[in-house]
């Protein structure tokens, strides 16, 4: 009898480790998701709310929606906290001696006035989000259809 209990316990632990729904359980509330449903060609772009054994509860356009597990083909999640910062800086200098346009007086300058050298600088920062990663894909042994 002791061997049977050990075997059943080991089988239960092994099943839990291979459970594709386990990764979905680890997601935090607010995680961005793309949920691919069986009946739709386009994924739903939603945020994670909560998870039960039967449903994935998400926020879709400020409304809470429960999606039955048996209707989900795939779930992709965007990792939280991983953004990439891109900094761009450029500088350009105009020199009155080499720029022929600098010899033309501006609208508020008297005739014969010369432009002086000038420097223009621009800079920008952009944050890019990490791409989505597939965390759940329905398998042949996934929950039975009801």
What this model shows, in words?
With 146 residues, the protein is an alpha+beta fold. It has a domain at 2-81 and 130-137: SH3 type barrels. It is 15% helix and 42% strand. It is built from 2 helices and 8 strands, in the order ααββββββββ. Strands 4-3-2-1-5-8 form a 6-stranded antiparallel beta sheet. It has a two-stranded antiparallel ribbon with strand order 6-7. The longest helix is centred in the N-terminal third of the chain and has 17 residues, at 2-18.
Give the biggest beta sheet.
Answer: 6 strands, antiparallel
Q: Name the shape in a single word.
A: elongated
Alpha carbon gap, first and last residue: 36 Å
Structural class: alpha+beta
> Strand tally, please?
8
SSE inventory with pairings:
Blueprint: H1 2-18, H2 21-25, E1 32-37, E2 44-51, E3 55-60, E4 63-68, E5 72-77, E6 83-94, E7 118-129, E8 133-137
Antiparallel strand pairs: 1-2, 1-5, 2-3, 3-4, 5-8, 6-7
């Amino acid at each position: 009898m002791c061997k049977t209990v050990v075997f059943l316990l080991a089988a239960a632990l092994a099943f839990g480790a291979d459970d594709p729904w386990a990764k979905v359980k680890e997601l935090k509330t607010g995680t961005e998701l793309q949920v691919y449903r069986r009946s739709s060609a386009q994924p739903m772009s939603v945020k994670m709310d909560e998870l039960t054994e039967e449903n994935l509860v998400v926020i879709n356009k400020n409304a809470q929606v429960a999606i039955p597990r048996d209707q989900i083909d795939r779930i992709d999640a965007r990792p939280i906290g991983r953004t990439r910062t891109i900094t761009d800086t450029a500088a350009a200098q105009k020199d009155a001696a080499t720029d022929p346009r600098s010899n033309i007086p501006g609208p508020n300058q008297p005739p014969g006035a010369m432009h002086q050298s000038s420097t223009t600088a621009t800079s920008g920062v952009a944050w890019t989000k990490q791409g989505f990663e597939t965390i759940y894909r329905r398998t042949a042994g996934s929950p039975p259809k009801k």
